[in-house]
Amino acid sequence: MDKKTLILAIAPLILSLTACTPEVANTGDTGAKQATQSRLDTIKSRGQLICGVSGELPGFSFVGTDGKYSGLDVDVCRAIASALFDNPDAVEYRNLNAKERFTAVQTAEVDVLSRNTTYTLSRDTSVGLEFAPIIFYDGQGIMVRKSSGSKTLADLKDKAICTQTGTTNEQNLADQMRKRGIPYKPLVFEDVNTAYATYAQGRCDAVTSDKSQLISRRSILPNPEDNVILDENLSSEPFAPAVADGDSKWANTVKWVVYSLIKAEELGINSQNVAKFANSNDPEIRRFLGTEGNLGQGMGLPNDFAVRIIKHVGNYGEIYDRNLGAKTKLNFPRGQNQLWTKGGLLFSPPFR
Asked: What is the tens place of the pLDDT at every residue in 234-286?
C-alpha cells in the first residue's frame, strides 16, 4: 500500500474520532456542571435576587406612590436578600398575575415566587414547584355589598360572583356551590384589578378570594364600609413561597430563611435587640446567630445569615405587625398565624 492509498484508507477513522471525542467530553462537562449548579450560585454571581410578587395586594405586596414595594410577601424577598447579600434592597421585583406566576418559576424568569400562593398537592407534585414553609394561614371568603342583605352562600343563588382564573378560589367556589346544589353565575378574570373593578361597578353581586385579599382590596374600594365579608369559610388557604423543583440547595436557603423569621420571634430576638444577643451563653441562640457552629456554611451562606435577616427585616412578628397588624389599615387579627407557643400554627424545626 503506497502512502496515498494509506491516507485514504485511514481518513474515515480519523474523521470519526475527531467528530466523536469532543462530543463525549462536552457531555461529561455539562453533566458535571448540571450536577453541581444551583440557582443559589447564579443569584450570588448576579448580586441580586429576582422575586415574583403580585404588586397589587396591600399588606402582602403593593407598590406605593413612592414606587417602593411593601408587604409580607415583599419582606420575605428582602429577608432572602439580606441573608445572601447583607442588603435587603438587592431585589428586583416582577409583578405576576395568577395565571403567569407558575410559568415564571418554571422558566427561571424569577428565582422565587413570594405571591400569596396557596400550597397544594398538585402544585407541589405536578406543576414543578417546591414550597418553602407556610408564612400565612388564610381561608377563602365572600364579599358582598351590605345593601344586598346576603348573609350566606345560599343567598347567592343565581347571582353573579367574580373571581380570578388560575386560582384555588375559582375551584373552591365551584366545589362548594356544587356540593350545596346552589346555581350561580361565575365571572372569571385573569387580572385581579378587573375582577374588583367589575364588582365595584355592580356587574357582579359578590367577589370571592382569600379573606386577607378581600380585606386588603376592600380597603381601597370607593366606599369600603359599604361592603361586608361573610362569616363562611369556603376552604383553608396556606400561603408559602415557592421555587422551581429539583434544586434542593436553593430550596433549602429559602426554607431556612423563612424558619429564621419564625425562630427569631420564638427566641425573643428582634431588629432592636439582636446585637445584645451576640454574647449570649445560650447554646441554641449561639448556633442560631452563627457565633457557634457552622450552620450557615452548610447552606452556602455566611454563618451570621440570621443576624443579617433580623437586623434588616426583623422577626416574623415585626413583619406581621408592620404589614397586617393592629396599627395598619387592614388590622388583620393574627389568630392562627401566631407562634405555636401562643396557640398558633407557626413552628420552626431546631437550628441544630
From this structure: 999 999 999 999 999 999 999 999 999 999 999 999 999 999 999 999 999 99
Q: Which distant-in-sequence residues (6+ apart) come within 8 Å of 10 by Cβ?
A: none
Question: Is residue 12 within 8 Å of 221, Cβ to Cβ?
Answer: no
Write the pLDDT tens digit of every residue in 32-51: 444 568 999 999 999 999 99
pTM: 0.85
Q: What angle do CA 350, 137, 274 make, to 5 degrees?
A: 45
Q: Distance (Å, rounded) from C-alpha 93 to C-alpha 69?
A: 8
| Identity of the amino acid at 337 | N
Would you call 130 helix, strand, or coil by DSSP? strand
In angstroms, what CA-CA distances link 146 with 79, 149, 157, 193, 213? 40, 6, 17, 21, 18
DSSP letter for each residue of 207-263: EEEEHHHHHHHHTTSSSGGGEEE-S---EEEEE--EEETT-HHHHHHHHHHHHHHHH
Region for residue 193 given its phi and psi (left: phi exceeds 0; alpha: psi -120 to 50; beta: otherwise): alpha
CB within 8 Å of 231: residues ≥ 6 apart: none
